Amino acid sequence: MPALVLLGAQWGDEGKGKATDLLGGSVDYVVRYQGGNNAGHTVVVGDQKYALHLLPSGILSPGCTPVIGNGVVVDPSVLLSELSGLQERGVDTSKLLVSGNAHLITSYHATLDKTTERFLGKRRIGTTGRGIGPSYADKINRVGIRVQDLFDESILMQKIEAALDFKNQVLAKLYNRRAISPQQVAEELLGYAEQIKGYVADTTLILNDAIDAGKVVLFEGGQGTLLDVDHGTYPFVTSSNPTAGGACTGAGVGPTKINRVIGILKAYTTRVGAGPFPTELFDDDGEALRTIGGEFGVTTGRNRRCGWFDAVIARYATRVNGLTDFFLTKLDVLTGWEQIPVCVAYEIEGERTTELPYNQSDFHHAKPVYEYLPGWSEDITKAKTFADLPKNAQAYVKALEEMSGAPISAIGVGPGRDETIEINSFL
Ligand code: GDP
Ligand code: IMO
Ligand code: MG
């Protein structure tokens, strides 16, 4: 099983970090292929808790080579501080590889991200403010700065000037802000160059060679399917492709090389930031899911919006990603409810649909149609096999599997590595 993609099937924060870390011990490479430090992946190893933003979760597995692919946007200051934070805790980070083609997030991208959000007012996206959108916009506009530019001072200067030419006009004339000095940006970036140089590599070549040699490569998505710029709830999305195809473009590996696509699926639903969310709860149940599930953002500390499981979304994730498996997480959080509502369809202006509407206004108006499944009260955090689960928990998992369109091959019953029920092996 040489190449697998592991990605979020909902709006992010499904538990991708834990799932990646769990497989990390048996994987040779873990590759981030999109996004940047907008991600927040919590990994619990024994009594240690790690919060990763830019680095692949595989960095915590000693035998594994972590890779930042060409599709990622890299804030060099975050990269270095995350690395030193891990080094101080005794984690070996020396194997990290960073694509020279990955684009940089500079201080002006973060400034523009925050300024644009303020300017949008109540129409804002609720971004993480990390400069993700503006950096990807520069990439598409062909005025981006790449990791490899750090090592050629004259090219770097030319590119920063080209990028700031237009932006400074916008900042000064539209947003009434001070123009940014290209020299200052160049100085800051050059200050990182020496420390980053040793990690930079032709990651596309290395990964293709590794797959050809039968090594196991895991592509770790950030964010989730419904935050995808093409397939998500646009414009309330991130600026990259977390969906499975993004792994190919974001790492330089052809689709014929990928054998398995695993969707990480929370047993209920959460979302951070603005945008439609049909099963969102505004009552005590929503508050209970947030408190029991610890649904507070790892990156921005914001409360996550919480709601019941949405099978329409899960089926959509199966379709647009070609999912072969699901990893169902946080089943333990649902312990204690007498009955658990599951959204099986939407009602849109009196019409019932079981598919995600492609029209954004329809999705905004979608009302969830619920089925009510019987709950359980037994503690499930020690369950090691499917048979250890109470009958109603088993039935809940089986019902979700049937509705979602791909087998549930693992179940999370707690945040720790060992709090997982494996049903089918991923490798
Ligand atoms: P990611 O962004 O997809 O990696 O997810 P986050 O790390 O942002 O959020 C998932 C949270 O749930 C983290 O705090 C994990 O430690 C935790 N978690 C993951 N799987 C489980 C599980 O099965 N049960 C419980 N209770 N917590 C889990
Ligand atoms: P992980 O990898 C949840 C959301 C933001 C905002 C939108 C755009 O931890 O699952 P951006 O800063 O990317 O331009 O913000 O996307 N968002 C996430 N929500 N989990 C994430 O990452 C997210 N990364 C971005 O809240 O609504
Ligand atoms: Mg997260």
From TrEMBL:
Its EC number is 6.3.4.4. GTP binds at residues 12-18, 40-42, 304, 330-332, 412-414. One of its GO terms (molecular function) is adenylosuccinate synthase activity. Substrate binds at residues 298-304. Signal peptide: none annotated. The keyword Cell inner membrane does not apply. Coiled coil: none annotated. PROSITE patterns: ADENYLOSUCCIN_SYN_1, ADENYLOSUCCIN_SYN_2. IMP binds at residues 13-16, 38-41, 128, 142, 223, 238, 302. NCBIfam families: PRK01117.1 (NF002223), purA (TIGR00184). Plays an important role in the de novo pathway of purine nucleotide biosynthesis. Catalyzes the first committed step in the biosynthesis of AMP from IMP. Homodimer. This is Adenylosuccinate synthetase. It comes from Streptomyces oryzae. The gene is purA.
